[in-house]
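__Record contents__

***
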Amino acid sequence: MIAGSALTRLRSAHLPRNINAPTAVAATSDPTFPSVRCAILLFTLLIRIPLLAQQPEGTPAHVGYADTLLFNDGLRYAAFGYDGPAPLFVQVWYPMHDDPGSAALRYADLRTRTLHGPLRRVYDELLLRMDSAFIEYDLRYPFDGDVPIDYAPFTEQQVKDSLFALPTTAHRAMLPTALSLPVIVYHHGSQGMSDENVRMAEHFAANGFVFLSCNFHWPLEHGMYGTPLVWEPDTGSIRTVLRFARELANGNKVFYIGHSWGAQEGWCTLHEPGLADGFVSLETTMEWKTDTTEVRDKWPYVLDAITTQHYPMPILMVADTEGEPPFQMFKGVHGELRYLDPKKPFAHENYTSAYLMRSQGAGGFNVPDRAALREQEVVYEALLDELLAFLQGHVAMSTQRKADPQSDFFHRR
């Protein structure tokens, strides 16, 4: 049993929750399953659009957005009238050269897609659980407290809807069949969401990368959100998305960024040669552990991987351990490791822009921890620049990291 490995989700670095028992998420909510071959055919027929042309040094690109559908043929999913290979609802952010000529999408628009039959029902159910997880982990509690925020006269649902009505910087466009650019695959944490890091996606897309994200959870009729279909690392779904990333990259490099459980899944998978050309591990929650027995009980697959496998790519590890790296449990890893450790307390959820969205609600609803959120946001923005510089250094791009003579937010090694 993986115990904490598949179900780790901490609301705050100061107030950790029971990592073995995620909150149950409510469900409610059409039906004919298009064949896998149909979906693949639809994708291969997508019209190629002009790719990103060379831009002046340091000039961000426009951000394009599209979605598509993949299937993990090695993992069966059966629920809500669907029975077949596990569907992966993929979201893609990418650089655009041409002026998009349309208004930027709202956050809610990122979840709009055309589906029919049982897949429509599955997706609707997934969205319900994602909404509930967003409210539970990103809205309900202040950064530094354990008492629910009083949003009166608004309900939590109204607060969520107001945030999802905010604009992004992305514009919907047809997905090219190949982008011939470096591609990043993002894996969310346990009980996380495919769109939990929109700002990270837009940041990379504006600077020449393609950014892919998707669901690594599926809604279950009689199980809480985050319960895995199989109690072992889901290497098949990761390989499926990475293969798709290789097609889009068209000879360019492919990278993997994982947060929390998503990072754990990366450690369990990426030792296989050829899967990824770089790995960013954002706080697995093992970094500050010193008890190998505890780690083996909660994360046996991860511990086995990092103590027996060799990782053939550069790895950047990020975690707040309240001290300088390297991180105790990862000292013996066979691979090229670099470390970042925030100097100031940095909460587990703040690796996601979804958690920081509340800071944009000031003036519309109660944000009692606005100052603390802004402090966290500054570190998050600095982290995005660090991640960009790390990956740019491995694709022969000039590094665009902003120099801050006033302060460096990280211990590094």
